[in-house]
Structures are given as C-alpha cells and as structure tokens.
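ok so dumb question maybe but i'm new to this and my supervisor (M.) told me to 'just get the structure for Fluoride-specific ion channel FluC' and walked off. so i did the thing. is this what she meant?? sequence i used:
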Amino acid sequence: MIRVALAVAAGGAVGSLLRFFTAAWVANHWPRHFYLGTLSVNILGCLLIGLLSGLFLLRTDLPLELRTGLIVGVLGGFTTFSSFSLELLKLMEGGRLPEALAYLLCSLLGGVLAAWAGLALARLLH
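this is what came out, is it supposed to look like this??
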C-alpha cells in the first residue's frame, strides 16, 4: 500500500507541474484567453484517462503502482475533471442516467456556487 501511495504522490507532483507549465505557457502566448490553459488540460486529461483506463483493462499485468500512479497521481494532479468525466461516463454506461445527471448538475452548479460563496466570504472578511 505504501508503494502505491508513493506512486500517487510522485505522479501528483508531475501532474501539478505539467498543469502549471501548461497554464503559464498559455497565459504567456494568449493573455486575454487565460482560461484556455484550464480548458486544454481538462480536455487532454479526459482523453488520457479514457485511453489509459482502456489500456489498463487490457493490461492487468502492469504493476498497480504504475496504473494508479498515472491515473490517480499524474492525471489527478493535472486535472480532476478527467476523474469526474470518467465517473460520469461509468454511471451512464451502467444505465444509471438519473444518478449521472444529478452528479453532473451537482458538480457543475455546486462547484460554481461554492467558488462564488468562497469569493463572497473572502470579500466579507477583507
């Protein structure tokens, strides 16, 4: 278990740095379109989590540390949107459409509302 946790920690560091450098590169080249960095990592992360999940279903012989380090660590540090997208897809593929829709709406609306509430609270405290 400790080896898997270390793989996740190392992968998370790599993913976070990749996200930072991607966002910095985008902001440097297109300062008006700062959001494209986040959009890019989210779309790329979704592509990669789908690809890796599919490959790992075929290659169960690969070490758990590698599989978990890449998916949970690297992609988790790169973007949590990829995990959200895969979980939503699994719910839909499992025929759990009402639960998938609720998860989608709660995640998007709840996230935006929570960010708004956090900003409002910070302004109140300032």
